[in-house]
Amino acid sequence: xGSDRARGRSTAVRWTAxxxxxxxxxxxxxxxxxxxxxxxxxxxxxxxxxxxDAVKVQQAAVETFNKTSDVKVKLVSVPGAEYVNKxxxxxxSPNAPDIFFNWGGGSIKPYVDAGQLVDLTSAFASDPVxxxxxxxxxxxxxxxxGKVYGVPMRGMQPVILFYNKSLxxxxxxxxxxxxxxxxxxVTVFKxxxxxxxxxxxxxxxxxxxxxxxxxxxxxxADVFRKIQNGDSSAWGDPAVLRAATMAKQLVDDGxxxxxxxxxxxxxxxxxALFAQGKAAMHLMxxxxxxxxxxxxxxxAAKDLGWTAxxxxxxxxxxxxxxxxxxxxxxxxxxxxxxxxxALAFLKHMASQDYxxxxxxxxxxxxxxxxxxxxxxxxxxxxxxxxxxxxxxxPDFTLSWDQALEADQATPMxxxxxxxxxxxxxxxxxxxxxxxLT
Length: 437
Fold this sequence. Notes:
signal; D-Maltodextrin-Binding Protein, domain 2; 49% helix; alpha/beta; globular; SBP
């Protein structure tokens, strides 16, 4: 499941490029019809979902809903590799889904611009189930221009600093709370011929995580929020240059070793280095836990530790801020014949039964009362850490490659890769990003 989520990140980037060309065509094609529920009751809602191990949770929710609803939900599970193309084709036809899975942010912007999605802002404001049912940072993270278009429907995936507990204990170190602590750990582990950080440098999104947290800690969440809202000049904020400079310093100091540009995350290279004790730390999405549990269960049980990203001296960002993938969302086609029934189904995502099903599947739900169910998680300690980190977060920034549309996200990832590989300077990096429009 971890690898599916990792692939889902790049899928979201490709998605926006695909749907931008078909969003208006879908409107012209008349996808769906009418608004509100059809007279006389009955009917079907088609829901597209990304096909992976978690689908069984959504299928159970559909079965529960259909027992009491006149309008039935038909779940269409699309294999991950086919999701982009199948959704694009469907949304450009009269047979578009009524409800569909997405990543929020930039991944739905073309649909929003084309007027194809139901604005759920008023529903969240007036309906207690929606208003009080989910963690507000997660709802906000998937929104666009202050409007809500998605209901959280899977587990949260914050980026976490994982570390090897045995290696830290053997070297008299504590998990880094400050940047000075982190650089001290780099020095200590390098002296012991241990790579301080595993990094799958062939996958640019793994490098992106460093810049996301550095910019947040240095300049606060508002810097990227301006960029996400269309102000490309915000790439010129001094905090961006400082973040790029600090990332390059890590590279130059050997924090990622000498061969990280040939190490992959998607094929298991970086997690293996970490599990084998060849690297002491790994900055990665929360799915790293399930990855290690599946590939290196002894390491996951005995030596895998986790902590928040450290503070940066002089930074203005809140130390409690989080970056990553808040969750996945259901959005509703504005032309559905069964809007009320669709909203009724989406409200089920806030139910206790659905929350328990996610926990049993190893996910950390984004519902406001999920903390009560985490004791049944495969690792209650890790589950509670994630949930409390997000629950207390003043801000949860959606991963940049998902928050931005593909025409900006793709070249941004290219520039990040060049920075880490030493093919550009921090100044050149900033200049290239400012040129993105």
